Each structure stands twice: as structure tokens, then as C-alpha cells.
Write a sequence for this structure.
């Protein structure tokens, strides 16, 4: 598969080749734009394969867009989850304020894909990235923001912009962190002081403040929610103090809210017209059958108000070498395993019939290219059957695939999404 810069026109011309993982063997390359016309179904896909479900993607995008709109929030979905321009376009078309990146390199891909507002939710300190940011600031069609959490990070950006002769200032958010967390100033007073330093810069523009609560807790227990809530309260107080200290032409941004606690960020950061609340969840777009299925803010809501898992990993049974064991052609090279193994959901027989096997077949281990499944005695699995698995943590599953087929509810291949990790 040849990989051009991901503009809309170039994506349409991107070619799936006979060696593209998960797709049929092809005599001639097929453009992504032509995939919906090929008439492919699940039977045509070569396993192992990772697939996305169109109906679930569309539902998830609508649900999050509606959540933000109902509360007057700005939404910048974290684009690192899939690094797929076609997914970003879906989210922007549904009303997203912009797309969030984790690095300048990701932001370059987003800019190439036509994303006009990009938040690099991270500090940028290497010269090459700062040079690119300096050049990007000259484009009036693109609004670029990044984070700072020290005098040195401010100095590096100022020096890079000055050396590049940038005529337009770079918008930045001052980051508040927490003890034992990731980046971000550990004290609100220090963050407030740095905000004043940025506001006085001739190369930077203070856009507001930001923080990340996802490193405080990994579940939604009462104690976790209390700790996360306290941090978000501190972030809100910082935003108000900075707004009082400094002159803003428009309400400053206060940003937080990853995939696990975006609802709490919406609640704790909102409360008036003095700030623009910007949330940036990402994993909701594909959801999963593991981490987010159990801990999403909507996990206990009615089906129509929950996110739907849109991602499946498929492997063919290669061997049943002993009772109670089936070996799938699906391994660490194909699926995420950092937060739980794949979860067998259904088996597809040679005659096309499907049988639910959730809870009766369990992946007990993974090699590079094999999954070892423990099989209940009441379940019969045969060599050649295809096991469809849910996954946990989409961020470390999607990065293993260059092109991902998109299926409808009848297992017809209706699209293909290219990734740019």
C-alpha cells in the first residue's frame, strides 16, 4: 500500500494492494474510494483482521456530539486513537470544535487532512517540531494550540518562533498537573505565574489553561471520582483566577476530560460564561468490550445512551490440539493486550451461521501470531471456524493496522479507513 499525505483527494487514491493486511489477495491494487463498490463481505477478508462497524461508529459520534452540544461544551476528540482522517472528518461534520493531537507529528497529519483547528495536548520541546509549528502559524486557515508547563518550555517556543521569523503568535494553554502525574505544573500558584509570563510574551498568545485527570485514577469508584473532582475544581479555580488577572478578548479555554471522566469535567468545569470548556475524549469513537465498556461514564445508561463497541478482531481457528484448547491465528501483532486479552464473542461456521460464545471461550494467552483459547466443554470449535473477538483499549489495537475495513450490520464491506500512525 502506498501512503501519500492524507488529503481528501489523496486518500481516495490510496491503494490497497495484494499484501495489505486483512484484505483479499488482489491481482491489481484497489483504491480506497472503490472499496464500497467491490461487493466484498466478511467471507472475502483474510484473517487475522480488524474491522470497524459503521452503525456503531455513527452512533458514538452522534452521542458524544449531542452530549457536548446539550451542555454548551466545545469538543476536541483525541485523534491519536485511530489516527484516521476519515474518522476525524466524521467527528468534525458532527460539530467537533477541532481535533486533539498528542504530538506535532500527529498535528502534521491532521493539518494535511484538512483539520483547521488542532490542539496539541502536550508540551513541545524539540527543535524540529517547533520549526514546523512556527511555519504552521503562518497559515491563516489553521488554528494551532499547544501546552506549556515551565519557563523553559515557553523560552524554547519563543526562540523557535523568533528564529523562524514567525509573524503570528502561537496560542498556548498553561498546564496544571498533579503529584505523581504526567506533565503540568504541580501548584496552581506556579501555573498562575506562568500564565502571566505567557501573556507578556510577544511570540505567544495565552489561550487558557488545561489539565489531564486520567492519571489520577483508572476507575469510577467513589474515591476516584472524589480525587478527580477535586483536581478539576482546582483547574476551574485556576481558569477563573487567570481570567481575572489578565485581559482576554474572548473567554479563555479551560480544557480537560479524557475518555474516562469527560462527564465529570463537563460538570466541574462548567458554570458560567467566563470560560470556554473544552473536553477531549477519544476512545468513545470506537469504544471497546473491555476497559471502556466497564468504566465509560455511560456504561450503566440505557442502550441508546451508551457507546457501542465498533471494533472487532477476527481470527481463524488453526488447531484444536487437545481437549478444551483452540488456537487462533490472531496474536500480539494484531490486537491490543496491555489492558486485557481479546474477548471471544461469536464464532462463524463454514456455513455462515453465527453462535454466541461470550463467557464460554476465553483467551488465556497470546504469542506474536497465536491466541490460546480455553473452551468450555459445551462449545464445539472446529478448524476453519472464525472467532470474532471484542478488544480492550482501542489505542493499542488500531495502530497495528494500515487500512481497516468498515462493515455494515450484514457483514458487507462498505468502506475502508486508512491510519497514519
Amino acid at each position: 500500500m502506498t501512503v501519500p499525505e492524507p488529503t481528501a483527494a489523496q486518500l481516495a487514491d490510496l491503494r490497497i494492494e495484494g499484501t495489505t493486511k486483512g484484505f483479499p489477495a488482489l491481482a491489481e491494487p484497489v483504491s480506497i474510494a472503490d472499496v464500497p463498490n467491490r461487493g466484498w463481505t466478511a467471507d472475502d477478508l483474510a484473517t487475522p483482521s480488524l474491522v470497524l462497524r459503521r452503525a456503531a461508529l455513527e452512533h458514538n459520534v452522534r452521542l458524544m456530539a449531542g452530549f457536548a452540544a446539550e451542555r454548551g461544551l466545545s469538543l476536541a476528540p483525541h485523534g491519536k486513537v485511530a489516527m484516521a482522517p476519515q474518522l476525524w472528518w466524521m467527528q468534525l461534520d458532527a460539530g467537533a470544535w477541532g481535533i486533539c493531537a498528542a504530538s506535532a507529528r500527529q498535528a502534521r497529519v491532521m493539518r494535511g487532512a484538512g483539520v483547521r483547528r488542532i490542539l496539541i495536548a502536550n508540551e513541545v520541546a524539540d527543535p524540529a517540531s517547533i520549526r514546523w509549528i512556527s511555519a504552521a502559524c503562518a497559515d491563516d486557515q489553521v488554528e494551532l494550540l499547544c501546552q506549556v508547563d515551565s519557563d523553559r518550555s515557553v523560552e524554547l517556543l519563543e526562540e523557535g518562533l523568533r528564529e523562524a521569523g514567525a509573524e503570528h503568535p502561537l496560542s498556548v494553554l498553561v498546564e496544571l498537573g498533579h503529584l505523581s502525574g504526567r506533565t503540568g505544573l504541580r501548584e496552581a500558584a506556579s501555573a498562575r505565574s506562568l500564565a502571566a509570563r505567557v501573556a507578556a510574551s510577544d511570540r505567544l498568545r495565552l489561550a487558557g489553561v488545561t489539565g489531564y485527570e486520567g492519571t489520577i485514577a483508572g476507575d469510577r469508584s467513589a474515591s476516584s471520582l472524589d480525587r478527580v473532582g477535586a483536581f478539576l475544581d482546582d483547574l476551574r479555580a485556576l481558569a477563573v483566577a487567570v481570567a481575572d488577572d489578565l485581559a482576554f478578548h474572548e473567554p479563555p479555554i479551560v480544557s480537560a476530560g479524557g475518555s474516562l471522566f469527560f462527564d465529570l469535567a463537563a460538570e466541574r468545569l462548567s458554570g458560567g460564561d467566563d470560560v470556554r470548556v473544552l473536553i477531549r475524549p477519544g476512545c468513545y469513537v470506537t469504544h471497546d468490550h473491555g476497559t471502556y465498556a466497564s468504566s465509560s461514564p455511560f456504561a450503566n445508561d440505557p442502550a441508546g445512551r451508551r457507546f457501542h463497541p465498533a471494533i472487532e478482531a477476527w481470527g481463524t481457528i488453526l488447531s484444536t490440539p487437545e481437549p478444551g484448547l483452540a488456537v487462533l491465528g490472531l496474536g500480539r501483532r494484531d490486537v491490543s493486550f496491555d489492558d486485557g486479552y481479546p474477548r471471544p464473542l461469536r464464532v462463524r461456521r463454514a456455513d455462515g451461521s453465527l453462535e454466541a460464545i461470550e463467557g464460554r471461550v476465553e483467551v488465556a494467552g497470546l504469542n506474536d501470531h497465536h491466541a490460546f483459547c480455553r473452551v468450555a466443554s459445551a462449545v464445539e470449535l472446529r478448524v476453519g471456524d472464525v472467532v470474532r473477538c471484542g478488544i480492550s483499549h482501542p489505542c493499542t489495537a488500531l495502530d497495528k493496522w494500515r487500512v481497516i475495513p468498515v462493515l455494515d450490520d450484514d457483514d458487507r464491506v462498505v468502506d475502508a479507513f486508512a491510519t497514519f500512525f
Q: What stands out?
A: Residues 8-53+307-418 form a domain with the Lyase, Ornithine Decarboxylase; Chain A, domain 1 fold (CATH 2.40.37.20).
